[in-house]
Write a structure and sequence with these properties.
The chain is of the alpha+beta class. The protein has one domain: 2-Layer Sandwich (Alpha-Beta Plaits). Helices cover 18% and strands 21% of the residues. The strands form two sheets. A two-stranded antiparallel sheet has the order 1-4. Strands 2-3 form a two-stranded antiparallel sheet. Strand 2 and strand 3 form a beta hairpin. The radius of gyration is 10 Å and the shape is globular. The protein starts with a strand and ends with a strand.
Length: 56
């Protein structure tokens, strides 16, 4: 189960720095998670101040 980032994202970038798999990249409107790379560790969800990261 990978995670995804919803429209609550404020582009703070905290999630990108905690991802051990480098699955998170800055997208056009908000950060995005590559589901093929995400190992579902949940670190990004834990650090997100906007609760923008949810299980996909």
């Amino acid at each position: 189960m990978a995670y995804r980032i919803n429209s609550n994202c404020n582009n703070c970038g905290k999630c990108e720095f905690v991802c051990p798999e480098d699955a998170i990249r800055e997208g056009r409107k908000r950060f995005e998670i590559d589901p093929d790379v995400c190992d579902s560790c949940g670190g990004c969800d834990y650090v997100c101040p906007e609760d923008a990261i949810i299980p996909d």
